[in-house]
Amino acid sequence: MSNTSLIKRAIKDKAQIHAKYKGHHRLMCPHAIGTRNGVKQALFLQFGGGSETRLTPNHAEDWRCLPVDELTEVRYFAGPFHTADNYSLQKNCMDTVDAEIL
């Protein structure tokens, strides 16, 4: 299954995605997937794993807009879904939305 298909499935099921990005294993919950300037992007809340920046204690600021094709070792997990009260579709993340958490 492609990265895009796994992320769309996780959005629909409100599940987790575990993947590597820029050398860091990341535990994330996808909230939207779409494109920006022709590049497939996904908006995640990262709740665990590593990052170039330090994760915050409640993860409310740990939103990640990542290019889907740069994710490796992408895995779907049916673990608890994490979100934050400050969720909104970040306009700088994507121009066109294919799927979003409802």
What does this protein look like?
With 102 residues, this protein is mostly beta strands. It has one domain (3-80). 11% of the residues lie in helices and 45% in strands. The chain has one helix and six strands; from the N terminus they run αββββββ. Strands 1, 2, 3, 4, 5 and 6 form a six-stranded antiparallel beta sheet that branches. It is globular. The protein starts with a helix and ends with a strand.
Short summary:
The protein is 11% helix and 45% strand. With 102 residues, the protein is mostly beta strands. The protein has one domain.
Gap between N and C termini: 23 Å
Order of helices and strands: HEEEEEE
Which regions contain 5 or more consecutive residues with pLDDT less than 50?
A: none
Q: Which structural category fits the helices and strands?
A: mainly beta
In DSSP terms (H or I, runs of 4 or more residues), the helix count works out at: 1
Fraction of residues in helix: 10-25%
The geometry reads as globular
Average of per-residue pLDDT values: 92
Range of strand content: over 45%
Total number of domains:
1
Q: Could you tell me the number of beta strands?
A: 6
Radius of gyration: 12 Å
Main sheet? Answer: 6 strands, antiparallel
Q: What are the defining features of this structure?
A:
mainly beta; 6 strands; 11% helix
Element layout with pairings:
Layout: H1 3-13, E1 16-21, E2 24-36, E3 39-49, E4 63-67, E5 72-77, E6 96-100
Antiparallel strand pairs: 1-2, 1-5, 2-3, 2-6, 3-4
